[in-house]
Amino acid sequence: MHREERVLEENLEAQENHTLLWTFYILALQAMVIIAWKKVELVDILQAKVLLDLSTIFITAAVLRFIQSILDLVLNFPGYHRWRFTRVLRNILKIIVSLAWAIILPVFFLHSSKIAPKEIKDLLSFLGEVKGISPLYILAVAVYLLPNLLAAVLFIFPMLRRWIENSDWHIIRFLLWWSQPRIYVGRGMHESQFALIKYTLFWSLLLISKFAFSYFVQIKPLVNPTKDIMSIRRIDYDWHEFFPKAKHNYGAVVSLWAPVILVYFMDTQIWYAIYQTLYGGFLGAFDRLGEIRTLGMVRSRFQSLPGAFNTYLVPSDKSQKRGFSLSKRFAEITASRRSEAAKFAQLWNEVICSFREEDLLIKPEQFPLSCREMDLLIVPYSSDPSLKIIQWPPFLLASKIPIALDMAAEFRSKDSDLWRRICADEYMKCAVIECYESFKHVLNVLVVGETEKRIMGIIFKEVESNISKNTLLVNFRMGSLPTLCTKFVELVGILKDGDPSKKDTLVLLLQDMLEVVTRDMMVNEIRELVEVGHSSKDSGRQLFAGTDAKPAIVFPPTVTAQWEEQIRRLYLLLTVKESALDVPTNLEARRRIAFFTNSLFMDMPRAPLVRKMLSFSVLTPYYSEETVYSKADLEMENEDGVSIIYYLQKIFPDEWNNFMERLNCKKTSEIWENEENILQLRHWVSLRGQTLCRTVRGMMYYRRALKLQAFLDMASEGEILVGYKAVTIPSEEDKKSQRSLYAQLEAVADMKFTYVATCQNYGNQKRSGDRRATDILNLMVNNPSLRVAYIDEVEEREGGKVQKVYYSVLVKAVDNLDQEIYRIKLPGSAKIGEGKPENQNHAIIFTRGEALQAIDMNQDNYLEEAFKMRNLLEEFNEDHGVRSPTILGVREHIFTGSVSSLAWFMSNQETSFVTIGQRVLARPLKVRFHYGHPDVFDRIFHITRGGISKASRGINLSEDIFAGFNSTLRRGNVTHHEYIQVGKGRDVGLNQISLFEAKVACGNGEQILSRDLYRLGHRFDFFRMLSFYFTTVGFYVSSMMVVITVYVYLYGKLYLSLSGLEKAIVKFARNKGSDPLKAAMASQSLFKLLQLAAVFFTFSLGTKVHYFGRTILHGGSRYRATGRGFVVRHEKFAENYRLYSKSHFVKGLELMILLIAYRIYGSAVPDPTAYTLLTFSMWFLVVSWLFAPFLFNPSGFEWQKIVEDWDDWAKWINSRGGIGVPAIKSWESWWDEEQEHMQYTGLLGRFWEIILSLRFFLYQYGIVYHLHAVKVKEETSIIVYGLSWLVIVAVMIILKIVSMGRKKFSADFQLMFRLLKLVLFIGSIITVVVLFTVLHLTVGDICASLLAFMPTGWALLQISQACRPLVKGIGMWGSVKALARGYEYLMGLVIFAPVAVLAWFPFVSEFQSRLLFNQAFSRGLQIQQILAGGKKNK
Question: Residue 269: helix, strand or coil by DSSP?
Fold first, then answer.
């Protein structure tokens, strides 16, 4: 069965809602044209005469309905024999009813209309009139509108429609039989009244804006010019006009109006983009997205962070009230709530540790050698009970103590003023208090002598007494405080090192400190202190020196984790004099901290206990992508001498330095000397690519997060204060004991989380010894809770025959080997489609729990985001409308957009879609689906409704979105949540991006054929259907209409200029002084197209339009692997030509020829300035399509590369094809491959291909009448056009003779062949001389002839390809192939020449590098070294 028959049978039966969309647009256009043509003011619309004229839209609607019914009958006829009788009867009745309305409404209207002929009025005289309007016409319109009124009532009251769909009443079943098939799928999809009001209001405002713009900017300004054009008489045509006496110049009117009407049908997409951006931004602001975007904002809100953490991430028995509030305040954690503060510290520190493990934290150069960013970011795991404050991370307190010391030393006012200045900075206040309390604590631990303790007690008592009385500045000289601090810093440094040999130095420091306090700082002597000092002197013992029997100090003190942490933190607070505003310095770490902090201030469900949370699984499909890069992969260099490891060293210099430090390696060469280091290096590189290793690492963060959260839930307060670290390093006894806290945490994590990587080809890879199988096994060994599912193909003997049997197998790692857990026999081969859907569906049975997260192989996860997973799962129990959620949408962060400008563009485009785009799709439009993003599925719902993917080949090419279709059709609800995110890798090279865009465009072309799309469009109400259409296939239809608009506009201009109509219209406008007509001819659609350029005129537009249109016409869509490697390499010209020739270069050259022809023959814009303004956006499109691949190609304008590319392309295009010769080796093989889609098409596809090719004949037909030799004689006979075909035939005959002569004589009769070529050459010269002398041919005519005949040759080539079987049958296929090769040569030269010329100038290549890698230059990366090659830099 041909493709078009399948299309018609499956989908054209009842596209009623999508048909309603176009009917609505046509009727609105008709109404606006009537109002503009009749010059009706908007306030006069309700007048009877105007309403009568506007009522003609009902006649148009009836006619359109009748046409639709006929098309349904004709186009579905091949499948009627398989239909039920009731279904056929319904279609026939619909034709009868629509025909009746198409007759009744016009007849009754003519009776009421004054323009009706007298004979018709006499014939209908038996009908009465009411104020000139037939009452029967009014009644007919009312009856005709009755079903629409009923539909409006059902729309307003969705609960009524739900009741009707579930009713068994016979009358209701009859009505449902008439309007829609009686099937379960698609029923009950109606939303709540409030949701309906929201998306109805959204679309009402959008449509009002759209129609107001269309009326006042597009339609109304064209009415008067149209009337003027229709009034022009006596036009002198420049060509042979077949209808010279036709009135009203309808050809010119169509040329004028066609682009406007196309823009009218398409610009809703632009208005949707505007409203989506406005509403999405408004919604994001109310959701508090972006409240915290920088580290400065993190600092300003950090005091509220522990309270937000305890509100959302710590389980509580308090009921939650969700909803919007203008301010979001959380109770600050006080020092008395040590347990809650400790919980926050455990989580925060675990996040910071994960940053360190990922090499995101480095050692800042401005800080002390022993200071690392991790130390500055860590919160104490267990706070000191004596402290009355929260201990904030040191990066918030950095430099606060030195500033406070300087302030105190120089302050001369009151104590209260000094304290007020210190308290003005909350972090400075905390730093001062913490340092003072820590100072006391350290001395109390260190000093054990009774005398020394008594002295210290006296001093501290005196200080605190003066502080309480606000007399500290009076009784103490603060000028010596910095000296005291310096001594104390030295003391803390000794304690941090713990060197016993420095005990004497420590004693001297204590004595010096005591002397500074008592002699330099105290104004008044304390009698008690003097007495104690005298007694120590009398005994002859120095203070703090002690004796062996009675030591005065304990050094080194007893070292515990808490003591080490406290000393290290105190040292940082005292020594870090620089502000830590740039900590952390790594951009990725800063982004993640900012997003995590921001998310805690957003609205999310409260977290349940881990034991009570929904259990979930993660499923990752994998085929044969990179798992872990091998050593050879790291060292392999591209043609520029750049290896992956060299590239990553330059792109991630800070992370590379930190990695080297982590391995204790000073030089890169040291890494290669150790196998363990090499393995670490392979993982380091793999975790920065789009590999399975990175995905597994990210998903296993869920288990790590659950263990920590379970610890916070289950541990006692004492265990929490001791810290989570004690549990992560269990003793052997704890590992063996099933009652230990460690064992309980492991059990809870395993119970609540399952991770299955479905590597369908793992069995074959293992049998063949593929390195990837070993890497997958190593992943299971390193992650014991990871499970791998695969399809095992084995040969078994049954009944004496050997048959291939398929099993679905689940394995885990045991003792460094894979151990089989389950083996399930399959009924046959699992792969029936593109592969990925089957890979997911066969393994879904191995998942567990209530929820399932679908994760692609190029995704990543972060520990801080994993902490919010149980909050997200609670959304399944939240109120989201009339139905509970079945898919929870999750936003993504694109991690591949940090270097190349092109990758940045792709990242921004994708980020816009996964944030604002999906936000609006879910709220208020209620049409969000699944797009291959890390959405969380209701596992029970989907596993009982067909799984999460559809697997039919071709039609389910974009398999992910069908999960959303399926869920919505079966009364599911898809939501979107932005307080949690998952990393996502995207394509970073232009060719990768184009292949991805092609795959998506083909997938959308196939979606148009699907029953899912039909059912959704049919069952949605009108406004929700608008949302559905313009956010799925409508986007691609609108994109295609943009390009069609440009074509129609330019071909219309070409028709006007070549025919002479434009010249006549411009002359009429000048004589009449009609400014609107001049404007319409000179600048019509100018501003509209310029506005469209900013939105649609991009290179990717050509990709979308080409593949979407070709899929619609011919089918043949297939999966296109884009590759996920590191792409900063130069693509050869031949590769770019193969990829973009049909989709961009051919169309770009056609538009360029159109623009050139209009410049030569156009009359409306004679001066270059006006022409430039009119055609600027279209020239921008042409240049983008022709040269963007070279602009975005690294080293695209480097002369040496250009020379190599030309040699490669010339070799490729001259290579002969053959069996087994790939397309990258031969032009002939590529050319045949490019026509594969014609094999899938039927007669209808070939017919439209021929019809579309006929446009190229317009050039020849128009231009030959503008040749100088023809214009001199003022000849417009059709004979001129006929003679032009003789030239083409003559050239074809000559080429055929030369081709046949080469085959027959070139080998054995070379002299004969040379004589033949000589005769043909001399004959051609004589012919040209005769034409120049006799017919007055000019050089300009030669150029014009090329402009005329080149498109004709292309048209013949396209028609020949469409009629390939016929052309092959008559033996002309070889000539067609030769002609095609000639055109490809010419196109290659035209495109290559400007690139080669620009490559002569070195600054062009420099400018291109700066443009292409602008993001990298802004980060100071060494892109030039990468582009220049890595060999000389090693």
Answer: helix
CA-CA distances (angstroms) from residue 565 to 382, 449, 559, 1135?
9, 25, 10, 59
CA distance 1353 to 1359: 10
Residue 1095: is its pLDDT beyond 50?
A: no
Amino acid (1-letter code) at residue 143: V
Q: What is the DSSP letter of 914?
A: I
3-state secondary structure of 130: strand
912-932, pLDDT tens digit by residue? Answer: 888 888 999 999 999 999 987
C-alpha separations of 1418 from 904, 911, 956, 1236, 1412 in Å:
13, 21, 42, 45, 12
Q: How many CA atoms lie within 13 A of 225 on its CB side?
A: 26
Other Cβ atoms within 10 Å of 1276 Cβ, number: 19
Tell me the C-alpha to C-alpha distance, in Å, between residue 1234 and each of 1110, 1133, 1141, 1361, 1365: 11, 18, 10, 11, 16
Give residue 299's pLDDT: 87
Helix or strand or coil: residue 788? Answer: strand
3-state class (DSSP) for residue 753: strand
Instruction: Give, in degrees to the nearest 5, the angle at Cα 623 between 617 and 627.
Output: 80
Query: Are 762 and 790 a contacting pair, CB within 8 Å?
Result: yes
Dist. CA 456–CA 526, nearest whole Å = 13
pLDDT tens per residue across span 4-53: 433 333 344 334 456 788 999 999 999 999 999 988 887 888 888 888 88
| Nearest in space to 866 (alpha carbons), one of 939, 785, 934, 918 | 934
Q: Which position has the token pair 């808490």?
A: 562
At residue 860, the 3 state secondary structure works out as: strand
Q: Count of alpha carbons within 13 Å of 444, Cβ hemisphere only?
A: 11
**What does pTM read for this prediction?**
0.89
Work out the angle at residue 245's Cα, subtended by the Cα atoms of residues 244 and 250, and round it to the nearest 5 degrees: 80
Long-range contacts of 1027-1031 (CB under 8 A, 24+ apart): 1027/199, 1027/203, 1027/921, 1027/925, 1027/926, 1027/927, 1028/927, 1029/18, 1029/21, 1030/268, 1030/269, 1030/272, 1031/272, 1031/917, 1031/921, 1031/925, 1031/927
Q: What's the pLDDT at 329?
A: 57
State the chain's maximal CA–CA distance in angstroms. 142
Find out whether 70 and 12 touch, Cβ atoms under 8 Å. no
- Is the link from the previous residue into 924 a cis peptide, with omega within 30 of 0? yes
Scan for tokens 């709540």, then name that residue: 192
φ/ψ (deg, to 5) at 1021:
-70, 175
Give how far Cα 670 sits from Cα of 85, 603, 767, Å.
81, 50, 35
What is the phi-psi region of residue 818: left when phi exceeds 0, alpha when psi lies from -120 to 50, beta otherwise?
beta
**DSSP state letter for 637:** B
Considering Cα of 1386, then 1387, then 1388, then 1389, what sign does the dihedral take? positive
Are the CB atoms for 348 and 592 separated by under 8 Å? no
What is the crossing angle of helices 1373-1399 and 1133-1140, to 10°?
A: 130
Determine the Cα–Cα distance for residues 1257 and 1275; give it in Å rounded to an integer.
20
With a pLDDT cut of 90, the percent of the chain lying above it is 28
Does the pLDDT value for residue 143 go beyond 90? Answer: no
Q: How far apart are the first and last CA of the chain?
A: 61
Q: How confident is the model at residue 1031, as a pLDDT?
A: 92
Instruction: Identify which of 777, 842, 843 has the alpha carbon closest to the alpha carbon of residue 812.
Output: 777
The residues pairing with 522 across neighbouring beta strands, listed in sequence order, are 476
The Cα 342–Cα 722 span in angstroms is: 9
Secondary structure in 3-state letters for 1227-1277: HHHHHHHHCCHHHHCCHHHHHHHHHHHHHHHHHHHHHHHHCHHHHCCCCCC
- The pairs formed by 443-450 with CB atoms below 8 angstroms and a separation of 24 or more are 445/554, 445/557, 445/563, 446/495, 446/553, 446/554, 446/555, 446/557, 447/510, 447/544, 447/552, 447/553, 448/551, 448/552, 448/553, 448/554, 449/543, 449/544, 449/546, 449/550, 449/551, 449/552, 449/553
